[in-house]
Amino acid sequence: MTDLQQRLRDSFRWRGDRTDWTSGADVTGWWRDPVVVAEIGSALAALHGADGAPGAPGAPGTHDAPTVVLGPMSRGSLLGVLTARALGVGFVEVRKDPAPLADSDAWWLTTTAPDYQDRHLTLGVRRSLLSSGDRVLFVDDWIETGAQAAASRRLVEMSGARWLGAALVVDGLRETRPRRELGVRALLHVREL
């Protein structure tokens, strides 16, 4: 286990009784640790060989290097910006229940399968922010059902861009199919918390 992974574990808390559906994960301690903030973007980028090291698969200038990082609001946006910065690429936020600001404000939209709270969310990305030449790395803090990641992949496909995979802090998937289909790689598995 790396120092970063240990710091993530040490600053994480379960709130409530984990056997009760009202309990939850508290990741707010992650943002208080300056080492986590400094290193997490590079660590997430490295999960898909996109750490920028010369000769590394996905290094800048190679065929599989991300051209953009995609992350859902809100923690996916925070982590996505840190990862994009580490990669030297831009970031696109996946908005939940987006509303166009004008008739000319065009969006790619899709609805999720039930998420971890059994909700169906409408997710969207402004059409002007993704293009067919983009190679997209999805970043978020946690994956449990894969619903938001799968919907985000549909948005990427709608734009004609290419999905490279999903880089997560915590993998909480109970099924292997979404992990394989979405190319999920994570710094920690939920069992480690």
3D structure, described in words:
- The chain has a single domain (3-192), classed as Rossmann fold (3-Layer(aba) Sandwich), CATH 3.40.50.
- The chain is globular and about 45 Å long.
- It is of the alpha/beta class and 193 residues long.
- Helices cover 31% and strands 27% of the residues.
- It starts with a helix and ends with a strand.
- The chain is built from six helices and nine strands; from the N terminus they run H-E-E-H-H-E-H-E-E-E-E-H-E-H-E.
- Helix 4 links the parallel strand 3 (68-72) and strand 4 (90-96).
- Strands 5-6-4-3-7-8-9 form a seven-stranded mixed beta sheet, sandwiched between helices.
- Mean pLDDT is 88; it is low at 52-61.
- Helix 3 crosses helix 4 (75-87).
Helix-strand layout with pairing:
Blueprint: H1 3-10, E1 13-15, E2 24-26, H2 28-32, H3 34-46, E3 68-72, H4 75-87, E4 90-96, E5 107-111, E6 122-126, E7 135-143, H5 147-159, E8 162-171, H6 176-182, E9 184-189
Parallel strand pairs: 3-4, 3-7, 7-8, 8-9
Antiparallel strand pairs: 1-2, 4-6, 5-6
Helix pairs in contact: 3-4
Name the helicity range. Answer: 25-40%
Number of E-state strands:
9
Describe the main β-sheet briefly.
7 strands, mixed
Q: Averaged pLDDT, please?
A: 88
Strands of the widest sheet, in order across it, are: 5-6-4-3-7-8-9
Class by SSE composition? alpha/beta
Distance between the termini: 13 Å
CATH architecture: 3-Layer(aba) Sandwich
What is the approximate shape? Answer: globular
Based on CA atoms alone, the radius of gyration comes out at 16 Å
Give the class-level CATH name.
Alpha Beta
The fold-level CATH name is: Rossmann fold
